[in-house]
Amino acid sequence: MSKDDGRQRVTIEDVAKRAGVSTATVSRVLNKTANVSPKTVALVETAVDELGYVLHTAARILSNNKTGNIGIILPATSNPFLTSLLESINQYAIANGYNLLIYATTAQASIRGGVPIPLNEDNTDGLLIFSNSVDEQTLFYLHRRQFPTVLLYRTPPQGLDVPCVLLENKNGARTLIQHLIKNCGHRRIAFMAGPPENQDSYWREQGYREALAANNIPFDPNLMGTGAFHDWKAKEQIEQWLDQGLIFDAVFAGDDTAAMAAIVTLQRAGKRVPEDVAVVGFNNDTMSEYINPPLTTVHAPTGAIGRMAAKQLLQLIRGEPAEKKTLFDTEIVVRHSCGYKLAVKPYVDAEEHL
């Protein structure tokens, strides 16, 4: 053991001696740079635990030219959806020997002007880029640098060949609106869109429009608003519609955060949900089943999406091929907020009517 600031510091030589293997073997186990037998891995890990050895980041960088970090760039906002996504990515990263660095930006990050990108080759081995949090020019720059990059909830721009992990939005939204019309009897259905230029919001709107057209309901631009995937913005939009005297019997809120804010805002205005106005969302966030009334929504496998994106990125970092496009399906979750139990008596499983 060597001395570090007057204290005894466990070295890799100490671990090797305790495990009965070479220092090179210990290095391979700790840095995961080569295949080592499970028995040897167990010996090294036991020695590490018993001695309290800590792998120093600087030594790791020198040994394999890796930082041991992956990064994610995403909008500076907090909601249950992003919490679930980040938790799944972080758990996968840790399980595979990596740390997750998070950069939340209030505007689109770019290599030229605007918001700079603090996560790069100096401090990460690869990047996950959420939605449109980074501009196209920067995406092309990262690709030219051959820097491992995976897009989340966004397809790459034309001419750029990088992996992306996506959610199927249009069919889920169309099925949800079809349910409101056919099973619940709603016709005046308002839609609160997500942020401008958000790909998920765009396809959810297309599903909304297609369901209206399929049921011979004319599209009414007055029933289009913005929830921006934010509670405060959804609250403002509902209050604006109510002040205008707009007539609507249902609200498709675009995501669950906006939907739950819509429910509370309507109730504070004296409206009953779903008796006066039905409300539905998208994502099936953790709290959606606990709000009163429980929220009808579209289930999105957020955790699985996060894990897949992290897996694809680590494959790129290791020099392995990754799937260019991974698309996750959705399914409708029927609860009380859509008014289905009021429309169908006696109550029958909603899936039989979809």
Summarize the structure.
The protein has 354 residues and is of the alpha/beta class.
Q: Classify the secondary structure makeup into a structural class.
A: alpha/beta
Low-confidence spans? 2-7, 346-354
What's the total helix number? Answer: 12
Largest sheet: 6 strands, parallel
Head-to-tail CA distance between termini: 68 Å
Number of strands: 14
Shape: elongated
Q: Mean of the pLDDT scores?
A: 89
- Named CATH architecture of the largest domain: 3-Layer(aba) Sandwich
The level-1 CATH class of the largest domain? Alpha Beta
Lay out the secondary structure.
Layout: E1 2-4, E2 7-9, H1 12-19, H2 23-31, H3 38-51, H4 57-64, E3 69-75, H5 80-95, E4 99-105, E5 127-130, H6 136-144, E6 149-152, E7 164-167, H7 170-183, E8 189-193, H8 199-214, E9 224-226, H9 231-244, E10 250-252, H10 256-268, E11 278-280, E12 297-299, H11 302-317, E13 325-328, E14 331-333, H12 340-343
Parallel strand pairs: 3-4, 3-5, 5-6, 6-7, 7-13, 8-9, 8-10, 10-11
Antiparallel strand pairs: 1-2, 12-14
Helix pairs in contact: 1-2, 1-3, 2-3, 5-11, 7-8, 9-10
Which short descriptors sum up this protein?
354 residues, alpha/beta, Rossmann fold, disordered N terminus, elongated, disordered C terminus, 3 domains
Describe this structure in words.
The protein has a 6-stranded parallel β-sheet, sandwiched between helices. A 4-stranded parallel β-sheet has the order 9-8-10-11, sandwiched between helices. The chain contains 12 helices and 14 strands. Residues 2-7 and 346-354 have low confidence and may be disordered. It has helices at residues 12-19, 23-31, 38-51, 57-64, 80-95, 136-144, 170-183, 199-214, 231-244, 256-268, 302-317, 340-343; strands spanning 2-4, 7-9, 69-75, 99-105, 127-130, 149-152, 164-167, 189-193, 224-226, 250-252, 278-280, 297-299, 325-328, 331-333. It folds into 3 domains: 2-64, lambda repressor-like DNA-binding domains (434 Repressor (Amino-terminal Domain)), CATH 1.10.260; 69-167 and 302-328, Rossmann fold; 170-300 and 332-353, 3-Layer(aba) Sandwich (Rossmann fold). It has 354 residues and is of the alpha/beta class. Helix 2 crosses helix 3 (38-51) and helix 7 (170-183) packs parallel to helix 8.
